[in-house]
Structure prediction request, 186 residues.
Amino acid sequence: MRPAQKQRSPAAFDQSLSGGISLVPCLRPMVESDIDSVVNLIARAMNLDEGNQARDTFAFHFSCKRYGIDDGRTYYVLPGPAALKGIAGLHHYHWGPQENVWLAWFALDPSLHGQGLGKFLLEAVATKARGLGFTKFFIETYSTPAFARARAFYQAQGFTQAGSIHSYLPDGGNMVVFSKDLTIDA
Ligand SMILES: CC(C)(COP(=O)(O)OP(=O)(O)OC[C@H]1O[C@@H](n2cnc3c(N)ncnc32)[C@H](O)[C@@H]1OP(=O)(O)O)[C@@H](O)C(=O)NCCC(=O)NCCS
Prediction:
């Protein structure tokens, strides 16, 4: 079992990092020129395949935007002094319930993992989701070992397992869905 830790405020977190660099989450909307940096970040935080899938997702999203089509997707980046530090997306399916939204492409620069920044990034994007009027927040993740850290992380942030789809992945891994009611702890 992991030892209990004191709750860190964004300010305390900021001071705890060396170099006096401010990393308090301050999301800004992703723009098309961020694609290469974000894909690079996802490839390093996860793997090259995920990076390539993310590139396709962003290419589709920004093509839609150019034609004035709302694809229900919103992406935010966490800027750093030199490179982007994080990415967090929201996917709303127009054919689904109005109040539902899914977390998408959620990743931090690997050099920042395990320092509490993921918690703040998730809170920041949940706040964006509330601001857009969503009340039910879902996350698609997987049963495979590569996602063990993410599963533990989401559970620690108050998400509960809502269900799973057996053998969803080509390697036999399950899709695991987590959910959280955004009207609680707002
Ligand atoms: C998932 C991710 C964003 C988490 O960010 P992070 O900054 O590493 O996580 P944090 O340090 O904020 O962890 C917050 C809390 O989650 C829990 N947690 C994190 N890792 C954990 C682990 N391995 N086991 C158990 N609990 C864990 C803890 O409660 C922790 O709080 P504490 O440090 O006060 O104990 C980050 O690891 C990441 O980018 N991973 C690669 C991309 C990825 O897998 N994305 C998810 C796809 S579904």
User: Anything to note?
Assistant: The chain has a mean pLDDT of 88.
